Amino acid sequence: MATTRPRVLQYGKMPLTQLDAELAQAYEVSILSEQPDPERFLAEHGGQFEYAVTSAAMGLPAGVVDALPNLKFVSSFGVGFDALDKDALLRRGARVGYTPGVLDDCVADLAFALLLDATRGLSESDRFVRRGDWSQSRFGIRTRASGKRLGILGMGRIGSTVARRASGFDMEVAYHNRRPVEGSPHQYLPSLLELARWADILVITAAGGEGTRHLVNAEVLAALGPQGFLVNVARGSVVDEAALADALENKRIAGAGLDVFEDEPRPLPALLALDNVVLAPHIASGTHETRRAMADLVLHNLQQFIATGRPAAEVPWSAAQ
User: Fold this and answer.
1) Bridge-partner residues for 29, per DSSP?
2) Where are the beta strands (DSSP E) in the chain?
3) Where are the beta strands (DSSP E) in 103-212?
4) Confidence label for 3 from pLDDT (cuts 50, 70 and 90)
5) What is the mean pLDDT of the segment spanning 72-95?
6) Which residues are catalytic?
7) Res 1: pLDDT
């Protein structure tokens, strides 16, 4: 019996398993990663799909987009869109929805967790106690976080939420963007180098992609200086990871807290050997509340596009079509 439900190509399993079930209940779903021969499947059935679902981590490569001649819309789970092939999607004329806003609080919370851990040495002190070192020596004195200068690279939704958290720590906040944010109460610095020189702690909340690749390089880290700390909850590609490992190892910066890496899930081996960096496995949005809200927006974007031709939340370069 023929189905009247819209056909949806799901690129892979979603980060929230309930979302897989909810998509399958509402639509005629085919999961590409579960096909014995995905390339052959696309060649035989790609023309049947007008809608696709993916995540920021998985993205959607050009080869898949090109195999979907009737693709109209992609609903993506997450706020990063650098893994989506922008050029292929624009050529196809497919619109793209994503899930901004609903994860801002949790990402900002983790930014501060990493900030506090890096400055106070919490993870390092945990290892110190577990090894039994406490009975032999005292743990070293660390740096306070409150009252420090906090520089934010990328004053968007998440950056603004980080700035609000900073007020509770009596921090002075400045930021760098492509352009000043209208109405922002915080100081705008016109270059990243100026921000790094000014800041005690530099938090990265900028978007990924070629435009920001290795924006935080050896020169920026040198400007941050031997008392400075780096926190990255954005995309690993924004930081030159080799330069960061070298700066940490040679104490050209004091420490770092990282939730994202250039080659996930494989952080640079040099980072794994260092005590002055805190490493998290890309968990900033990983709470029950936030993942549920993200799943709801994936569904809502898809439902609204099918009904009206416009998603509730659309990536900027898609909305410009």
Assistant:
1) 8
2) 7-10, 28-31, 51-55, 73-77, 95-97, 149-153, 172-176, 187-188, 201-204, 229-232, 255-258, 277-279
3) 149-153, 172-176, 187-188, 201-204
4) low
5) 96
6) 235, 264, 282
7) 42
Rg (CA), the chain: 22
Distance between CA 51 and CA 46 in Å, rounded? 11
Return the structure tokens found at 174: 């400045």
Angle between helices 104-120 and 288-308 (to 10 degrees): 150
For 29, 174, 234, 279, the CA distances from 153, given in Å and listed in that order, are: 39, 9, 10, 20
What's the pLDDT tens digit per position in 212-238? 999 999 999 999 999 999 999 999 999
Looking at residue 51, its pLDDT comes to 98
The one-character DSSP state at 234 is: S
Instruction: Reply yes or no on whether the pLDDT at 118 is more than 70.
Output: yes
* DSSP strand pairing (187-188 vs 277-279): unpaired
What's the chain's length in residues?
Answer: 321
What is the model's pLDDT at position 44? 98
pLDDT confidence of residue 4: 82
- The number of helices, as runs of H, and strands, as runs of E, in the chain is 13, 12
Sheet of 229-232, strands arranged across: 187-188, 172-176, 149-153, 201-204, 229-232, 255-258, 277-279
23-64 confidence digits (pLDDT tens): 999 999 999 999 999 999 999 999 999 999 999 999 999 999
d(CA 117, CA 233): 14
Residue type, 80: G
Paired sense of beta strands 28-31 and 7-10, if any:
parallel
Q: What's the CA dihedral at 109, 115, 121, 124 to 10 degrees?
A: 60
Average pLDDT value over all residues in the chain: 96
